[in-house]
Write the structure tokens for this entry.
Amino acid sequence: MKHARKSLALLVAGVFLAAQSNFAQTTSEPPQAAQQSQEQLQQLVAPIALYPDALVAQILPAASYPEQIVEAAKWMDTHKGLQGDQLAKEVDAQPWDESVKALTQFPAVLANMKQNLAWTSELGDVYVNQQQEVSQAIQTMRQRAKQAGNLKDNAQEKVKTRGQTIVIEPSAPDVVYVPEYDPWLAYGDPLAVFPGWYPYPGLFLDGPGIGFGAGFGVGLFAGFGWGWHHWDFDWHHHGRIEHDHHTYFSHSTTIVNRNHFSGGQTHFNRGGDSRGAFAGHQTDHTPNVSHGTSGMHSGAFGGFTHGGTARGNAFRGQSSFGGFHGGGGFHGGGGFHGGGGGHGGGGHR
């Protein structure tokens, strides 16, 4: 009897130790990263791939803060009377990431990211988790637009080819023109529309060409650390984003960095700092958002499925939105300059 009890105790102890070992192994293993394919990445970057490099360098990290995009866009709506240096000072005092502050120079871009929040959230996710692949997707789309005759030098921007890399810069140092185009038609063969994506006036051109509206004056923001001239896209180092000549990483707590998962925490390394970050984390200001007709929740708020699941809905396969004409200029805080005509296949309005 005593021998049987001893054997039973040893058996229970062995089972407990084995379970404990399996649990430790399971909890220490990183989650499987849901990687987007190149086709999906190209669809995600299509709305911004033809923007100037420095603007893309602001949009990508800002997209990893979708809750701050919502806050900043609402703040801009309620402070429309602010202009120039006064606006810059008020923006500088806000608690947003520098990349989000930078987008206040381009209110239409900020408003578009708020309107298409599910797209913004997925764009932020791939920036955090697939940065090199994202830069490749942007270059692929630029090559396609160039081959379609829709990307070339003009009065608003300079398009340069350096080896296999296409660089887009403003023609004037203190005036930035944001191109207007249909992201599903501007690259030659039509692309499938991102589910639930809606065009925003002033950024969308009905047809396959590219046009330009009013220019955004960025000179008055130069004295602030998040101003235009502090940003760049370094294509020769895996497409990294630079701020003041240093690699810029997101500190977002709403996008999980699946590439640096350790011990149940995600680390965003910037300047030697690291912080935990978890999907679905909400701050006191984080809205509970469901996104329009797609019936999906933004990934930044815990419910939107990354990895392309949303692309299976009824929006898949559409090539464009008919009958929509982008119109009007948008105030960029620093004054306005007349836009040029459209070029490429579709002309400008």
User: Anything to note?
Assistant: Residues 23-33, 262-349 have pLDDT under 50 and may be disordered. The longest strand covers residues 157-162.
